[in-house]
Every structure is written in structure tokens, then in C-alpha cells.
Amino acid sequence: MPVGPENIIAVPLEMATKPQVWGPLSSDTAGRYADCHIHSALCGHAKHTLPEMLEGICGNGLHTAIFTEHLPLPEEIDPNREVSMRFSDLDPYVTTLKEMAERFDNLRSKGKSAPRLIVGAEADWLNQDSDWSIQSVKEARAAGIDVVLGSVHMLDGWAFDDPAQTDEWDRSDTDEVWDFYFAEWIRAVKSGVYDVMAHPDLPKKFNFIPADPRVYYAEAADAIAEAGILCEVSTGGLRKLCKELYPSRNFLMELAQRGVGFCIGSDAHSVPEIGYGFDFAAQQLLQAGVTHQSVPTGPVRDGNIELLPL
Length: 310
Prior knowledge:
about 15% strand; two-stranded antiparallel sheet; 11 strands; TIM Barrel; globular; alpha/beta
């Protein structure tokens, strides 16, 4: 069935097996949150299609939804399109979401309930080819992408967060991996092309964590504060082996102390994950002294940020 405001069907959220504090948005928080990190099957590894995810956000009570599909990676890195969009999908992706955003805007202008929809993308920082990383973001913006999340998923071609590649962790020194990761994360921050840095301490996903990970936080927090971009509080970590937010509580405190702005993202790859754990994320932000969610509506260095009270 085609997706559109006139025939949106809310998708049931089957969340009964998840802890209540980490569950779906409750009715009393309708319109309170923006989910700034949402995927679809276009990326090659999500469960639900773009139309299904659009239906999902309409049944979820979000104030704003930012779709952030993985930008196409070079053919030699993702030949089978298992972790990123096809190059041919970028323009249709942007066109579809722009059209839907306009229709949702029209609904709201008539007093009806519909989330604001923003067209975004998640862009990988490739340490082996930073020039390509930067150019791919510029091309995405030219194609109509409004918000770009930066992320580091690979180090010298090793996708360290891939469940199929965890054996490499057993062969690696955890401290060295974290050293490498944060050095590249800071390079990505300083590149000047991203609006938000996603899931900032991603290497902890499978619980490979140094004895004291706090040694990385101050320098990383200084870098993103100086860059003037946002940091994502990702509830995706709650669904992984690490069972905590990205960033960790100590990292979050370091960032908050420097005045870094935060958006909240579910990193949803299926409908039930949209808005997942947002009450818990808001609670953690409030405990860190953060009173508002910073929602990127365009390039953040140009001031395109809207504040939503937590």
C-alpha cells in the first residue's frame, strides 16, 4: 500500500519483552522527542522498508523524525550493498522523503497530528581515505541531504562493530583499538563536514572495553566542543551487549560540562526500535544537567538547531 498521510497505518510496537524504562514512547510523551537516527532496508541490513518505517514514525508520537540512511560506500568496501545504500538509491531516497515531509507539513498546518520529517544521512569516516569521506558528504548535501551524522565503524577496513567480525577483537589489543578509534573519531570531528557525531563510544558494543576508558573522554569532548557540532545520545547501545547508552555516563558528563549539545537517536533498523529508550535517555541527560534536546534541522554550523525541552 502506498504511504501517505491519507492512508497511514500505525505499526504495532511489539516491545513486551524489553525493560519498561527502555521501551517505546509512552502516550504522555507524545510530541516531546525527536528521533534523529533512523534507517530502513535501503541500507541493506535493516528489517523494514522505507514505507514501513514512515508508517512507524506516524504511529509513534514523535515531534520530529530524521531519516539517516547510510550513504553509499565505495564498491570495494561494500560490493553487495550490505551496509550502505546503492548509489542509484540516493536521489529517490531524498525525493521520497522531501515529498513526504511536505505532506506532513501540510497536515500539521491543518491542525492534524504528523511528525516533522527531516532528510538526513549517516556517513562513514574511512581512515584510509579521508578525502573520499569528505567528498561523499559534499555530494550528499548537493543531492538534498539536510543533516549528516558522522560515524566511525571501520578501522583499516575492519568493521569492528560487525557481529561477523568479532574474532578480530580476540586477536587485537583492546587499548590499541580504542586508541585508534578515538584518534580517527577526533579527525572526523575536525573534518568540518558533519553535523552530529553518532554513537561516540561504539567500540564498547561487544564489551571490549579498556580498564579505564575515561582516558579518552576529555580530549574527545574538547574536540567536539571546539568544532561546534552535536553529539548523539544513542539508545542503540541499550539493545547491544554493552547494555548502555552511547555515550557512557562518564563520557556524557565530560561532554555536558563543555556545553556540547545533544540530540537523541534510536539508530532504529526496525519499526519497534523507533524512539526506543528515549525516556531513559532524557533521564540521563537531565541528571547531567542538560535540559533540552538539540535537534539539527540543517547544517548546524549555520545555526540550524531547534531546542526541545526534555
